[in-house]
Amino acid sequence: MNIFRLAGDISHLLAIIILLLKIWSTRSCAGISGKSQLLFALTYTTRYLDLVTNYISLYNTSMKVIFLAASYATIYLMYLRFKATYDHNHDTFRVEFLLIPTVLLSLLINHDFAPLEILWTFSIYLEAVAILPQLFMVSKTGEAESITSHYLFALGSYRALYILNWVYRYYVEGFYDLIAIVAGIVQTVLYCDFFYLYVTKVLQGKKLQLPA
């Protein structure tokens, strides 16, 4: 465990807490993409199937359980508890355009053509693009609430910190995973425009609004 991975995990956990508190405190999931949340739940489900086969550490197991539980709790709140507040009209991204390529890519480019390894690879590819429905939703509405912006910033920071984690591991441990590194870079690049708007607007107390 290095400082970059720990900081990335904390940022990821913070993003989840911000999202759940936002939904619960406002009793609304307005501005949140249910499709992105479903993709994240699928990501963690396919990635953490090794919970029943491999034990690495208490920390590792705990974080996996937390991410899984939080993902399904979010889906419950959005699609059942507060479904009347869910904005179907703006959450219109065609997720099949993400699912089909990631399935094919995981079958073609992986470390080992074994079921758990293919599912893990699929989860890495899917996570890289799972935020697109949320970003597309923000682009359609033209703005995002401050709390939603904080959630997106924490989520994007998690992936950026994980890139630093891979750099650290390469130089210190001589280990690298090209699939995870490339996917992480792709995911971070998708957040670049948002990061710029977050720093120039949200951190200065302004509402995040996209240029007309």
TrEMBL record:
The chain crosses the membrane at residues 65-82, 94-113, 119-138, 150-168, 174-199. GO terms for cellular component: endoplasmic reticulum membrane. It is a multi-pass membrane protein. The keyword Endoplasmic reticulum applies. InterPro entries: ER_ret_rcpt. Its main location: endoplasmic reticulum. GO terms for molecular function: ER retention sequence binding. It is found in: Endoplasmic reticulum membrane. GO terms for biological process: protein retention in ER lumen; protein transport; vesicle-mediated transport. This is ER lumen protein-retaining receptor. It comes from the Eukaryota. Belongs to the ERD2 family. Keywords: Endoplasmic reticulum, ER-Golgi transport, Membrane, Protein transport, Receptor, Transmembrane, Transmembrane helix, Transport. It comes from Meganyctiphanes norvegica (Northern krill). It holds the Pfam family ER_lumen_recept. The keyword Endoplasmic reticulum applies.
